[in-house]
Design brief:
single chain, five-stranded parallel sheet, 9 strands, about 15% strand
């Protein structure tokens, strides 16, 4: 056995079946960013990754074959002009949302999902039904558009010139809650460039061991 083979074998043995050399290696967000501070309801929260190299995903997000419909795989591009985000972009929007009143990160999930899994720091919880006319009084939807999103209404027409940029997410690539909200807002005339979508949602957030906080 030559020296190269011996070196390769040594690496394999040191890594083992877990894919990590030790159980205490650092788990940063990126190679140079260990954490990101986010303002959540007036308090600073650090988004980090779980430091345990042997940590595993929550059982709620370990299922691979949810029935479709309704839990069907969502497309990568939800609608023309609506930007699809990854984790790093979502973290950056969460960081900005705590300081910039023109941004809002929205958790669209309903039921007890937010309580069971937590929400992304910096997010506000607005269940998807609250923006859907089949489930909520249209006047209450209008109040959300005006008082929370910054839109204005002129008779039967909406003006979104000063409306906030909204970043939506729900349970993952198989979840239709945030896509439903985005499509509903588009139908009202909300500008596509002011709507962002974290497609991976809580599924991918949990896969990467990122921080969550309890919903209010």
């Amino acid at each position: 056995m030559n020296k190269a083979m011996i070196a390769a074998l040594s690496v394999c043995l040191s890594i083992g079946s877990t894919g990590v050399a030790n159980a205490d290696q650092p788990v940063n967000i990126t190679a140079t960013v260990p954490s990101v501070g986010v303002m959540h309801h007036g308090k600073l929260v650090q988004i980090v990754r779980n430091p345990d190299n042997f940590n595993q995903i929550d059982p709620d997000f370990s299922m691979t074959s949810r029935p479709c419909p309704p839990y069907c795989i969502q497309p990568m591009q939800l609608a023309p002009g609506v930007e699809t985000l990854g984790e790093l972009e979502t973290i950056e929007y969460a960081r900005k949302a705590g300081k910039d009143a023109t941004l809002m990160l929205i958790d669209s999930r309903d039921g007890d999902w937010p309580q069971r899994s937590g929400i992304i720091p910096g997010a506000v919880l607005i269940p998807w039904q609250d923006l859907h006319p089949a489930h909520t009084d249209p006047e209450k939807i209008a109040e959300t558009l005006v008082f929370r999103f910054g839109a204005s209404r002129q008779g039967s027409l909406w003006n979104f010139e000063n409306a906030k940029t909204l970043v939506f997410y729900c349970n993952g690539p198989w979840c239709g809650q945030s896509p439903t909200n985005i499509k509903q807002l588009l139908s009202l005339g909300y500008p596509a460039h002011k709507l962002k979508w974290y497609r991976g949602g809580m599924q991918d957030w949990k896969v990467l061991g990122l921080s969550t906080v309890p919903p209010r």
